[in-house]
UniProtKB/TrEMBL annotation:
Residue stretches of biased makeup (Basic and acidic residues): 34-44, 214-228, 234-248
InterPro entries: Cyt_B5-like_heme/steroid-bd, Cyt_B5-like_heme/steroid_sf, MAPR/NEUFC/NENF-like
A GO term from the CC aspect: membrane
Keywords: Membrane, Transmembrane, Transmembrane helix
Chain intervals for the UniProt region annotation (Disordered): 21-55, 201-248
Similarity section: Belongs to the cytochrome b5 family. MAPR subfamily.
A single MF term (Gene Ontology): heme binding
Name of the protein described by the UniProt record: Cytochrome b5
Species classification: Eukaryota, Fungi, Dikarya, Basidiomycota, Agaricomycotina
Composition bias, Acidic residues: 45-55
Every Cytochrome b5 heme-binding domain range: 105-202
Amino acid sequence: MVSTKAANRPFLGYSEYRTKREQEHTAWLRRKKERDEKVARGEEVGAEEPDPTEEPEVGCLGLLKFIVYAIVFLLLAGKFFTGSYLWEHELPNIKKLIPTNQRLYSERMLATFDGTNPERPVYLAIDGDVYDVSAGRRTYGPGGPYHMLAGKDAARAYSTGCFSTHLTHDLRGLSESELQGVENWKKFYAEHKKYVKIGRVSHPPIDPASPVPEHCDPKKAKDSRTPEQVENMKIADSRRHGQGHAEL
C-alpha cells in the first residue's frame, strides 16, 4: 500500500481518478447490456447513452479552435513583450507582391502627375525608375516640402541637395559619394512600404558637349569640375590674357 506522504499525493490522486473512471465505465456497460436486452425483446428504449469515459475526438473544429487560440496567444504575447503584435516584424507590402503592368513614360507624360490635379496620382522618378508616391501627397503634392520632385526625374538633386538648379536626371560629374547617395535614395523608394514602382521614364540622350550642371555650393562647384572643364577654362583664360597683351 502506498503511504499518504506529500510526495505520493499525485500518484494517489491519479489512482483515485482511474478507479472512478473504471467504475463509471462498468456502470455504463451494465446499462448498455440492459438496453440491448430490451431492444432484443422489442421494447421501446431511449437514445443510446455514450460511454462517459470515452475520450472525445478533437476533429477539424477542435483543431481550428486550437490554432485560433494559439495565434491570439502569440499576438498578445508579442504586444506584451515587445510592444508589437507582430514581434517587431513588418508585413510585406502586398502591392509589391502583385505583378503590375509597368509602363514607359515620356517626360511630358510624367509631368502631368505632379500632384496639381487632385484626381490624378502623384508620380516621381529617380534615375529612370518611376514610383507612385500618392501615399505621400502631403510631402510631394502642392504645398509639400518636396513638391519640386514630383512629376520629374530629379535624380541629381537627391545627391547634391540643389533642389532649385539640379532638378535633372543628368548625373555627369558627380563624385563617388554623390553617386552612392543616388543609389541610397533608389533603395529607399524600392523598399518603401507605401511607394510602388510603376514603370520607367524615357529621357532624350544628353549631349556630351553640353555643360555639366554646376553645384549650388560654389566650393563644391569648383571641386566637381572635370579635367576637361578645367583645361577649357585655362585655354579661355590664356586667350583673354593674349588679347590683353596685344591691346597693350
